[in-house]
Automatic annotation (TrEMBL):
Keywords linked to the UniProt accession: Signal
Domain called TonB-dependent receptor plug: residue spans: 654-730
Lineage start: Bacteria, Pseudomonadati, Bacteroidota, Cytophagia, Cytophagales
Name of the featured protein: TonB-dependent receptor plug domain-containing protein
Annotated signal sequence range: 1-21
Pfam families associated with the record: Plug
Plastid keyword on record: no
Biological source species: Hymenobacter nivis
SUPFAM superfamilies named among the record's database cross-references: Porins
Gene3D superfamilies in the cross-refs: 2.60.40.1930, TonB-dependent receptor, plug domain (2.170.130.10)
Region (Disordered), start-end ranges: 557-581
């Protein structure tokens, strides 16, 4: 871990105006030492936690079932935003609306960069999905700080049985209420943290509907006598807004919110405190004016001077002490002194205790440096014509920026506009990556800087809050708990718990058995928190590992929970919105593109419509046929017609034999050889069959580790029966008791004391289809499948002149396409640029 601390996390303090320098040679007053201590504690905190951030640039903003998500990953240190050197492994997950991880990629990071692709399987349902990316080290900050993005996925695949037609566009009904039916969730947040009697206060509001989307409201604020203290309040953007008033002692304030249908609902504001501090921040152009006030108990002495500590991404500046009590304490905070990002302002009393906090945003110049994209033609391009685009990146002074790393996509303009306020690399690194919780439409705050967007951004910061650190943890002096190490290579971690999964089991004896790609056995012991971690995987192939755990006293009544990443249990994803007009055309184009891709490369859809819904003829068998529900969700492709062996009612299967031992002699044409745990199986001497465990393809090594008493049934597909799965060796499908929701008496928890894990190797990204036309060929070119995305390049790098040149060909469709480049400079500045490419057929 020593290498982790080699970074130069310099504590930046400025010495001019009302600022105090850390290294002054003159004697320091007590007040200065308090600020100095707080600044040191914050700096030490950051030097320990070494925050990381991840961002994924996608080829397009929305997707359809059956398509591929192409992504380019950027992992940077959380303070300077320079390429990260801490972690070497990145995980990318696609989470379904049903809170299941439906696709995962494990990527090797090199200099904070990686790229890959994820298939949105044609068997998935349309809906709102979540894409997330994280390193193991990032998880120390909590699940709120892994990269996440919501994706709209529309039904389009021609290979989905009974695929619905393109969605019809539902137009809004004239006069329909702006607020959806039902009572919204409305919360109020006093600026600085509290309502204090007699102190003028700004109060921010956030209203969301049942799906977590912002919903604008109108309300009046009333006191205990139902007198309106704020008669006309309305949110202004995505259910957020603010108002100002002075709370009175002993009063309880409520917001009376107008609901659809003419009804109202009351929401309580936070309770009024008799004494305390307030903090108000006003935007004064190049500066922020900060005002602090204090209201104390009657007759109590006026407290000592207060201080202001400010911070942007670890860049700390503290302000000179100011007296408070008879009048407000004020400071002028120059924006020019800080890097772009969230400004964290903390009011500190004379004892060094934080009393009030406020977030603001600092933006000196554009949020992202512009990347100039220049196509080689100003007019339209023909079909299957070459396109050359020059990319150039310079700094604010016009100097070229070499070694800027970029990714570039070219997609249909209407498609690119389906999510116009989607996040960008600038909105992520400067804003959402430092806020807990979901931020709706983050791109809005940086697209067109105006007074309106500045106010909306301020309302967001007043309501969304700050979570990078909590002051009581920073000033406590307690060491920071870092549960997850930084991965330098692939690792298998997890926790051993009591049989009901509640209590960690320390000093548990672990046996590690790897059967693929190599065979090895080792042992280990869990730590005080019951956690374990095995390292040393080369990452070239999927590893099959069986773990067996025992208590220190020898008992096996424990549960092994492998670490599968951040939790998805409490994830709430909203339904798809009413489809905008371009969605129907997008779905139509996507469906045709997938059909063309299948024609060019049938292996992309090996099952296909020709066999997916065919009823297989019965085959004479010697084993008894047991009814397995045709609608069982574990049936891959819904396949039926195989020979089913009922393990649950077979006496020999209850003895704990190997699965292959129980099958031996029970199915005609099944040849089994070897002895446990190295048994092999063939169907009609046609090679090794495919194995499917509860609807998921696995290797034979996994099946060799299963105990027959845990199996409900096994289904054997021979010859034509197995054609639906592809391949010629047949299929053996295993259904466990634990995975069957209807199986009576099944223990739904993990198997006690043993678990088998598939640890995928590093994913090898596919190449985006990029044909080159013009050269003579022996065969007639087939259809060009590219209809929505023309080009994707995840690894563009500028040269010494700050330039890069891209070349690609148009396809068989006319239209307007948007080229988008995103990336980051060597110094950590976000970069973004767009251009238009027009294609016109003859």
């Amino acid at each position: 871990m020593n290498a982790h601390f080699s970074r130069n996390w310099a504590l930046a303090l400025l010495a001019s105006g009302g600022l105090l320098a850390l290294g002054a040679a003159r004697p320091r007053p007590v007040d200065e030492s308090i600020l100095q201590r707080l600044a040191r504690q914050v700096s030490e905190y950051y030097a320990t936690v070494l925050p990381e951030k991840a961002y994924l640039h996608l080829d397009k903003p929305v997707y359809a079932t059956g398509e591929t998500i192409w992504f380019s990953a950027y992992v940077v240190d959380g303070l300077r935003h320079q390429a990260d050197s801490l972690s070497k492994v990145l995980y990318v997950d696609l989470v379904s609306p049903e809170q299941k991880i439906v696709a995962r990629r494990t990527l090797r990071l090199q200099g904070g960069r990686a790229y890959g692709d994820l298939d949105v399987a044609d068997t998935l349902a349309a809906g709102t999905y979540q894409l997330r990316a994280y390193t193991n080290w990032m998880r120390n900050a909590g699940d709120d700080f892994v990269y996440s993005r919501r994706l709209q996925v529309w039904a389009a695949s021609p290979y989905t049985a009974n695929a619905p037609p393109p969605p019809a566009v539902r137009r809004p009904v004239a006069g329909a209420p702006a607020v959806p039916a039902g009572r919204p969730d409305v919360q109020f947040f006093p600026e600085g943290g509290a309502l204090v009697a007699g102190l003028p206060t700004v109060v921010a509001c956030k209203a969301v509907d049942a799906n977590g989307r912002g919903v604008d409201i109108k309300a009046l604020i009333v006191d205990d006598r139902n007198a309106a203290v704020v008669p006309n309040f309305a949110t202004t953007h995505l259910g957020m807004g603010h108002f100002a008033f002075t709370p009175a002692a002993g009063q309880h304030y409520r917001a009376r919110v107008a609901l659809p249908g003419g009804t109202t609902a009351d929401y309580a504001l936070p309770a009024v405190q008799a004494s305390g501090y307030s903090l108000h921040v006003a935007d004064a152009g190049p500066d922020y004016t900060v005002e602090a006030r204090y209201q104390g108990p009657a007759g109590a002495p006026v407290p000592g001077p207060v201080m202001l500590l400010t911070e942007v991404r670890g860049f700390l500046v503290y302000m000179a002490p100011r007296p408070i009590g008879a009048g407000p304490a004020t400071w002028k905070v120059s924006k020019a002194r800080y890097p772009n990002g969230i400004l964290h302002l903390t009011l500190v009393d004379g004892q060094g205790t934080p009393q009030a906090e406020r977030l603001a945003f600092v933006q000196n110049g554009p949020a992202a440096l512009p990347a100039a994209l220049t196509p080689d033609k100003t007019g339209p391009y023909g079909l299957r014509a070459p396109v050359q685009v020059k990319v150039r990146v310079v700094d604010a002074a016009g100097q070229p920026l070499a070694a800027t790393r970029l990714s570039v996509s070219v997609v249909e303009t209407a498609l690119a506009g389906l999510d116009p306020t989607a996040e960008t690399i600038a909105s992520n690194l400067l804003l959402t990556s430092d806020l807990a919780g979901y931020v709706e439409g983050p791109g809005y705050y940086f697209q067109n800087p105006t007074a309106e967007t500045a106010r909306a951004l301020d309302d967001l910061l007043l309501t969304q809050g700050w979570r990078r650190f909590v002051w009581k943890n920073v000033v406590s002096g307690q060491p920071v708990g870092l549960e997850y190490p930084a991965d330098q290579a692939l690792a298998l971690g997890g926790q051993v718990l009591s049989e009901h999964g509640y209590r960690p089991i320390p000093n548990s004896q672990l046996t590690f058995v790897e059967t693929r790609p190599i065979r090895q056995v080792t042992t280990g012991v869990t730590n005080a928190a019951g956690r374990f971690r095995f390292v040393g995987f080369d990452g070239r192939d999927t590893a099959i590992v069986t773990l067996q755990a025992r208590r220190a006293q020898g008992g096996s009544n424990v549960v092994i929970r492998p670490d599968t990443g951040p939790s998805v249990e409490n994830l709430r994803l909203p339904p798809l919105p009413t489809p905008p007009v371009p969605v129907a055309d997008f779905v139509k184009r996507s469906r045709q593109q997938q059909a063309d891709e299948h024609e060019m490369d049938p292996s992309r859809h090996p099952v296909g419509m020709v066999t997916r819904n065919i009823l297989l003829d019965n085959v004479a068998v010697t084993a008894k046929r047991v009814a397995v529900p045709p609608d069982d969700p574990r049936r891959l492709y819904g396949a039926t017609g195989g020979t089913v062996i009922d393990f649950a009612n077979t006496p020999s299967a209850q003895s704990g034999l190997n699965i292959f031992q129980v099958l031996q002699g029970r199915v005609a044409g099944l040849t089994i050889s070897g002895s446990p745990p190295n048994m092999s199986i063939q169907i009609r001497n046609q090679g090794t069959p495919q194995f499917i465990l509860d609807g998921m393809r696995v290797d034979a090594d996994v099946i060799n580790t299963l105990v027959s008493s845990d199996i409900q049934s096994v289904e054997v597909f021979k010859g034509n029966e197995g054609a639906i799965f592809g391949g010629t060796g047949g299929v053996i499908a295993i259904y466990t008791k634990r995975a069957d929701p209807k199986y009576k008496g099944a223990d739904k928890g993990p198997a006690p004391g043993i678990v088998t894990v598939r640890l995928p190797g590093y994913y090898q990204a596919r190449e985006f289809y990029a044909p080159r036309y013009g050269a003579p060929t022996l065969t007639t070119p087939g259809p060009d499948p590219r209809r929505t995305s023309l080009y994707w390049n995840p690894t563009v790098r500028t040269d010494a002149a700050g330039e890069a040149t891209l070349t690609f060909f148009t396809a068989d469709v006319s239209g307007t396409f948007r080229a988008t480049a995103e990336g980051i400079t060597a110094a950590g500045q976000p970069v973004r640029g767009t251009a238009t490419v027009t294609v016109q057929g003859k």
